[in-house]
Amino acid sequence: MRNSRRARLVLTILLLSAFTLITIDYRSGALGGVRNAASTIFGPIEDAADAVVHPIGSFFSSLGHLNSYKSENGALRRQVAELRNKLNLTAAQRAELAQDQKLLHLAGQAQFTVVGARVTAYGATLGYEQTATINRGSANGIRVGQTVISGDGLVGRTIVVGHSSSTILLASDPTFSVGIRTAAKQLELGTVTGGGVNRPMQLQLYSNTAVLTSGEQVVTLGDSQNNDKPFAPEVPVGTISHVNPLHGGLAATAQVKPFVDFTALGVVAVVVKAPQNLKHDSLLPASPTPAPTVTVTVTGSPGTSTSPNSSTSPSSSPSTSPSRSPSP
């Protein structure tokens, strides 16, 4: 009992002392020095404790925002993917523009009247192994049997023509055959046939006395009276990559590497009219120099064409107007 009374008395005295000190400090600031001294002594201890406790508190606090961080990370990843897709699309557009420029340059130098088109599908049809579909047809002035070119050279010929689409027999098809002439001074005549998928074309000369050389280039042979039949003249076909051994009395044969990559066709053009006179070898690939300004006649629909005397830059594309792409 005595200990209990004594403890209550001590507690009461301490509480009264505490309230008294708080009141005096609040009213007069008399104990400000004591408080400052306590801060000086205990402040570093508080700072050290805060340095330890604060990161732990921040960690547990960040757990509450974890889902938000994941969401932001996912959004950033999607944004990066979208930007990459845009970059890829830009690269594809640049590649198509390069095809357009080469095609316009070739058609312009030849003074061909052409209808620009885009390859929309590959496949085997009508018993042929190597065919392609384009998005232009009779509504655009295309007929069966017309020469199809790209900026690199001979692509094939039209074999089926619908109202708004056509089928091309590619020059790589084993049944494909085109009359050719060797370039430069030889001017030997012969026939080139398709070799199949990713295989060289085959050349057969008409003369059994002519000699072939690796590296020679060959072009299409056109009729002097009707230069768009059976093929437009002077269209680059390919380069002789290998000359086969001669067998007594037989005409020379060789393998031809085509200028055109038949597995990567995008923009092409159908030749609807060719000039009567075209300089020999004028369309063969030259050294990589800027293409000069040329004149080209282009049609996009029956009965419409640009003026033969209009001048256009190689940065344009053959279409219904020289300022548009050949494959709208």
Question: What is this entry, summarized?
Answer:
The chain has 328 residues and is α+β, with helices and mostly antiparallel strands. The strands form three sheets. A six-stranded antiparallel beta barrel has the order 1-2-5-4-3-12. It has a six-stranded antiparallel barrel with strand order 6-7-8-11-10-9. It is built from three helices and 15 strands.
Spatial shape: elongated
The structure class reads: alpha+beta
Strand arrangement within the widest β-sheet reads: 1-2-5-4-3-12
Unreliable stretches (pLDDT < 50, length at least 5) are 287-298, 300-328
Order of helices and strands: HHHEEEEEEEEEEEEEEE
Q: Summarize the amount of helix as a percent range.
A: 25-40%
Tell me the number of helical segments per DSSP (H or I, 4 or more residues long). 3
End-to-end separation in angstroms reads 107 Å
- Radius of gyration from CA coordinates: 42 Å
Strand percentage lies at 25-35%
Averaging pLDDT over every residue, what do you get?
Answer: 76
Number of strands: 15
Largest sheet: 6 strands, antiparallel, barrel
Fill in the keyword field for this structure:
328 residues, alpha+beta, six-stranded antiparallel β-barrel, single chain, six-stranded antiparallel barrel, elongated, 15 strands, 32% helix
Textual characterization of the structure:
The protein has 328 residues and is of the alpha+beta class. The protein has helices at 2-28, 32-63, 66-110; strands at residues 113-125, 128-134, 147-149, 154-161, 166-170, 177-182, 189-193, 201-205, 217-220, 236-243, 253-258, 267-273, 294-295, 297-298, 311-312. The strands form 3 sheets. It has a 6-stranded antiparallel β-barrel. The protein has a 6-stranded antiparallel beta barrel with strand order 6-7-8-11-10-9. It has a two-stranded antiparallel sheet with strand order 13-15. The model is unreliable at 287-298 and 300-328 (pLDDT under 50).
